[in-house]
Write a structure and sequence with these properties.
heterodimer; A: about 575 residues; 6-stranded parallel beta sheet; 22 helices; 21 strands; B: 4-stranded antiparallel beta sheet; binds thiamine diphosphate
Chain lengths: ~575, ~160
């Protein structure tokens, strides 16, 4: 609702909000956020952002500010919020250390294309460049890890900057934007006028699709005998749920995903052949090097997916559907590039393809699946040893949550296992730090995801290492009454690094052993109920109690200390050299 | 194959885009050999020419990366060959070696350079030409003492 002091004007179809009276820059900033539909901000106050916090105080009913325990928590929470909802996540911090504490999350959002607007306070304009108290050049620091950034030094410039920030963050290939607002701009008075940004002169977020490119790609698909679809986060970001599934089903082409593409198609869809990458499934990895047409959709050929690029799918014609022109030919040369939003290009492509008969080709995937099952999966989900395995825990969680939860993972062995064994049944359900691999991401991101989708169950899967990087955010769960499920797969090691030390450094476990505190006691101190189990017979009941708790709960499961994640493509090797065992 | 390229970047704001533009070079460890910026007042745009030596494939990827920066309107790159390879070089040299009839003065004539200014201590000499000519001039001039030199691309703007 717009207070009477404000009037709404329509100017050539665009909504413009204009105030009669002058207001402070900080109030203007909050009003801009409301105009952008922001209902939640994750943040942490401090001197240089205090005027904005003071304005937020007057808008408590309209904007829920969630006070995290660290600015890194705020930015990861905003990421979780954005990833699960598709909306722009907003976080806020003060100048200096507040702003620098955001940087890891901003870098994470940049590499995983997550729309964020990060608002930082800054010293007054007249102090800029003087090494004033808590002055850091956040614009310079954040340039390498943002899609765009701007410093605002006068109140009158705030609305246009915020409008542009939201437009840039959410459009095209999304990403993080930093808006750095000097303190004088927050306290000055200026008249308020808000107009949503609909275009930026130097920016083409949604390239027009060239029908010739679609026709060429369709022709290549028509002639294919062994086509393979590989899809990534772009499918999810573009909202192409139906378009993608229809394309897969109409064409009958087997599909495999990157980690970031997980939950873009239900895991148990008959044409879903599994996950690609260093610890992905055997079939899609080796058969990438046997397909004749590789249809890459909304993915960027990360080195964890390609292995040695010189030996990557050299036999295949490559079709690449991609919204970001700089990704085309960046790593793998596309024979048939299709520039544009894949939601639109998939629709056009689907109109032009017919069902092929790929039974023999699909049988090859089934054959590989069986090999992987016998050599890896069966042993992991039903181990002979007394000690629990990560896979059997995740498998059980998947079963008892019916594959319907939002699964948020940290970084390490547990991450790979969780992604391998959770049976995703819902779209937008996999939240992980893919490109940056940021330990400490999980707990705050899960928090943000739950705030965005309170009706969904959110399960956070962490290692004992990563949990301790941001565990203070249990304080936020407690204060803001956010109900998430915290699963710690405790191997008393920095497991993934230890695995590499075992395999590539002759078992020299340099600084990877963890002597941990009592996680249950810590959780209880934060008002989070906690259980710890070591035995298989307690697993199912413990998981049921854990999942059914009406408040946040923690389950620590002691798992095999020196278990390894397989399959594995050694760094720099070809996909065909994937190993099923050490 | 490595060759000399000029990357021309048109941007809407220099202060906002400079860091981003140069970041794209530095993260690829591309050494910038020369930079020249002009401001087009009518269109309120900046044009920055950046001279590098690189592989064409790297240059294509770099240009694509630059093109997607929000404040960047346009990026073009041209391979510097022949006439396009012209550059202007200015040398700061000790005045005492450049007296009338000196070897240095003969070199200036021989290489069709010119003396721009002279003060008590130093003289500024300018020479334009293709890279190889400038390099030959520098080799000849070097033994007589060169304090510093700056290079610009010819016909910029
Ligand atoms: C912030 C950060 N620091 C270091 C790393 C390097 N790293 C990757 S995985 C890993 C071990 C993670 O250990 P843990 O959280 O216990 O999970 P596990 O691998 O045992 O499942 C480390 C240290 C990282 N990814 N992120």
């Amino acid at each position: 609702m717009i207070p009477s002091a404000y009037k709404e004007m329509t100017l050539s179809g665009q909504r413009r909000i204009i105030s009669k009276e002058k207001i402070t820059g900080s109030e203007s900033l909050v009003r801009c956020l409301l105009q952008e539909g922001v209902d939640t901000i994750f943040g942490y106050p401090g001197g240089a952002i205090m005027p904005v916090y003071d304005s937020l105080y007057h808008f408590e009913d309209e904007i829920n500010h969630i006070l995290t325990r660290h600015e890194q928590g705020a930015v990861h929470a905003a990421q979780g919020y954005a990833r699960v909802s598709g909306k722009v996540g907003v976080c806020m911090a003060t100048s200096g250390p507040g702003a620098t504490n955001l940087i890891t999350g901003i870098a994470d959002a940049q590499i995983d294309s997550t729309p964020l607007v990060c608002i930082t306070g800054q010293v007054s304009a007249h102090l800029l460049g003087t090494d004033a108290f808590q002055e850091t050049d956040v614009i310079a620091i954040s340039t390498a890890v943002t899609k765009w950034n701007i410093q605002v030094t006068t109140a009158k410039d705030i609305p246009a900057a915020i409008a542009k920030a939201f437009y840039i963050a959410r459009s095209g290939r999304p990403g993080p934007v930093v808006v750095d607002v000097t303190k004088n701009a927050q306290v000055e008075l200026a008249s308020f006028e808000y107009q949503k940004c609909l275009e930026v002169k130097s920016y083409t977020p949604d390239p027009v699709i060239d029908i010739d490119q679609i026709d060429n790609a369709a022709e290549a698909i028509k002639n294919a005998k062994r086509p393979l679809i590989i899809f990534g986060h772009g499918v999810i970001i573009s909202g192409a749920k139906d378009e993608f599934q229809t394309f897969v089903e109409k064409s009958g082409i087997p599909a495999a995903c990157t980690i970031m593409g997980l939950s873009g198609l239900n895991t148990d869809h008959p044409l879903h052949m599994g996950m690609l990458g260093m610890h992905g499934n055997y079939g899609p990895n080796v058969l990438t090097n046997e397909c004749d047409v590789l249809i890459a959709i909304g993915m960027r050929f990360d080195d964890r997916v390609t292995g040695d690029t010189k030996r990557y799918a050299t036999q295949a014609k490559v079709i690449h559907l991609e919204i970001d022109a700089s990704e085309i030919d960046k790593i793998i040369k596309a024979d048939f590039p299709v520039l544009g939003d894949c939601r639109t290009s998939l629709k056009l492509l689907t109109e032009r393809v017919n069902a092929g008969n790929y039974d023999a080709w699909i049988n090859q995937f089934e054959h590989c699946r069986k090999i992987e099952y016998d050599k890896v999966i069966a042993k992991e989900i039903s181990p002979d040893s007394e000690v629990l395995s990560m896979a059997e825990v995740v498998n059980k969680i998947s079963e008892l949550s019916n594959g319907e939860a939002v699964l948020v993972t940290d970084v390490g062995q547990h991450q790979m296992i969780a992604q391998r064994y959770y049976n995703f049944k819902n779209w937008r359900s996999n939240i992980t730090s893919g490109g940056l691999g940021t330990m400490g991401f999980c707990l705050p991101a899960a928090m943000g995801a739950k705030v965005a989708c309170p009706e969904r169950q959110v399960i956070a899967v962490m290692g004992d290492g990563g949990f301790q990087m941001t565990l203070q955010e249990m304080g936020t769960l407690f204060q803001s009454q956010i109900n998430i499920k915290i699963l710690i797969l405790n191997n008393e090691f920095l497991g993934m690094v230890r695995q590499w030390q075992q395999l590539f450094f002759d078992k020299r476990y340099a600084s990877t052993t963890m002597i941990n505190p009592d996680f249950q006691t810590i959780a209880k101190g934060y008002g989070v109920s906690a259980q710890k189990i070591e035995k298989r017979e307690n697993l199912e009941q413990a998981i049921k109690t854990f999942l059914n708790d009406t408040n946040s709960s923690l389950l620590e499961v002691m798992v095999g200390k020196e278990d390894n994640v397989f399959p594995m493509i050694p760094s720099g090797a070809s996909l065909s050299e994937i190993k099923l065992e050490p | 194959m490595r060759a000399q390229f000029t990357i021309s970047v048109t941007s809407t704001s220099l202060s906002q885009s400079l860091n981003r533009i140069f970041g794209a070079f530095s993260r690829r460890r591309i050494n910038i050999q020369g930079i020249h910026t002009t401001f087009n007042e009518l269109e309120e745009m900046y044009n920055t020419d950046i001279l590098i030596v690189e592989d064409a494939s790297v240059v294509n990827k770099l240009a694509a990366h630059l093109r997607k920066q929000i404040d960047v309107l346009d990026v073009s790159h041209e391979w510097q060959e022949g006439a396009n390879n012209e550059e202007i070089v200015q040398y700061k040299v000790p005045k005492r070696n450049f007296d009338k009839g000196s070897k240095a003065e003969k070199l200036v004539k021989q290489y069709q350079a010119k003396v721009l200014s002279v003060d008590n201590e130093t003289a500024i000499i300018e020479k334009s030409g293709v890279r190889s000519e400038n390099e030959a001039f520098l080799s000849a001039l070097g033994p007589l003492g060169v304090f510093e030199f700056t290079k610009m691309r010819h016909n910029i703007g």
